[in-house]
Amino acid sequence: MSSPKKNEKQTVIQDVLEKPSSRRSFLKGASIAMAAGSAALATGCMATGDTTTSEEMKLRWQEYFKKHYRLMTAEEKKETVKRLERLAKIQNDLDVQIGTDPPIENVLYGYAFNISRCEGFMECVAACVKENNLDRKTNTQYIRIFEMEPGKLDPSTGDGQFYHKVPVENKFYMGVQCFHCENAPCIKACPTKATWREPDGIVVVDYNWCIGCRYCQAACPYFGRRFNWSQGEVPKEELTTKQHYLGNRRRPKGKMEKCTFCIQRTRKGRLPACVEACPTGSRVFGNLLDPESEIRFVLEHKKVFRMKENIGTEPKFWYFID
Amino acid sequence: MKKQIIPFAIPGLSLLLMLLLTSFALANEKSFLDTIKKTVKPFDARSVKKVRPVTRKTVLALEEYRGGSFRVLARKQEIKRYKCSNCHGEKPVLVKQGFELTHGNVIINHGRAGNELSCIDCHSEDDRDFLEDKKGRKIDFDHSYKLCGQCHFRQKRDWLGGAHGKRVSNWAGERVIYNCASCHNPHSPRFSKRFPATYSVPLN
């Protein structure tokens, strides 16, 4: 009974050993063969034959040895997405759909924030937490709203932790999040090239390639990056199942994460969750390469400024005044 | 004589060259903003696939913006007891009756303090199914921006361009935007004070 299985195992190992391969692919192949072998052992011992554990083990091994997102072929992207979806099903009984939508041609995303219109209702923050499956245990938030004294424009002078009835007279509110810089210091600081700028301007993180060194967090002049302290905990009924590989999918523990302009939405033509949720319409989002877009109207007709413009990071996030 | 001129000319020339080179270098060091400003060809937002269709009822706006026609959220079906002519018919409605029956909840907080607007500043006196601007033109409830814009013309200009208000769910696809009354209560247009939806935790 065990002989065909043993033969199969042997051929897998032989294949791995005989095929010309790199160190990485050899390790991957060898480990999968080992996993398969141990699974065969396990099924041999256990009468019931718990197949899910061996499947999970195999998937996790394959996940561990996958490539950097930018080096993956379309086929490999499809495979990893399939694995992740299957793992979500096995581990948490969740039906998620992970997309790998590429950037849309002739699109460069830009964002504008109306500081004279924002009233500090923080609906954007709540929507962001929900949309991006942020960890509820450590209370991670990508957006911060500062209550500011008139005349001040540096958020560090404002109150970032207010909780009282808003708006307060003679105060204004300023939102801060990842600004998706053109010359992003975080990208330069990353030692593993786990973060990069996509052609549509979104600065993304390959969560599997990040080693959690937090250099990017130190390099960011806008405090736009967050460290993932623990395995994210999201109530099952609140989980956003429409995900993107570079966006709101389940993030491994100990990695960096950040605002991605809701890549899972914006690459499908939708608005980011914060823009959609804003009750006062202070947030404007659109394509900078479209002269008819709303964001271009703001840039052309409003008094705009960017934060710390002198340091040359060229953020794609403008503040404007009515 | 000529030999004397050349040593003088060389520093001058090199200075000129240096200036030229630096100016070229500066010109080459372009910001992405220059590329943006140079794009004049509009992006065909309708070409984006997978745009989620807007399920709420919309109407074609009577005005245009830079990209041509657009749609606004319809308003009429959200007004309770529309049509108004069901009550405001031939028979006059007494103020007392009206207060008890229908509009007791309406608190007018629109206009300068001490000089608040009254009902017929916006509603048509003869035909209650319509709004009416200061020139006596009847305005449909779905196109309230025509009425609001006569005082709030700056906001209307921004709204048309996209700096005030917002789109419904998509940045791509057909432009569908919120109507004035989708966000503002026309009787009390300021947003009322309330507690924030969530709170911020300390970052460190």
Automatic annotation (TrEMBL), chain A:
Pfam families: Fer4_11
Subcellular localization: Cell envelope
Keywords: 4Fe-4S, Iron, Iron-sulfur, Metal-binding
Main subcellular localisation: other
Keyword Transcription regulation: no
GO molecular function: 4 iron, 4 sulfur cluster binding; metal ion binding
Gene Ontology cellular component terms for the protein in this record: cell envelope
PANTHER family in the record: PROTEIN NRFC, PROTEIN NRFC HOMOLOG
Domain (4Fe-4S ferredoxin-type) ranges: 201-230
Keyword Lipid biosynthesis: no
NCBIfam families assigned: TAT_signal_seq (TIGR01409)
Designated name of the protein: 4Fe-4S ferredoxin-type domain-containing protein
Summary of subunit composition and partner proteins: Heterodimer of a large and a small subunit.
UniProtKB/TrEMBL annotation, chain B:
Cited InterPro entries: Multiheme_Cytochr_ET
Organism superkingdom: Bacteria
Signal sequence, start to end: 1-27
PANTHER family: DISSIMILATORY SULFITE REDUCTASE SIRA, SURFACE LOCALIZED DECAHEME CYTOCHROME C LIPOPROTEIN
Molecular function (Gene Ontology), one example: oxidoreductase activity
UniProt protein name: Cytochrome c7-like domain-containing protein
Signal as UniProt keyword: yes
UniProt KW keywords: Signal
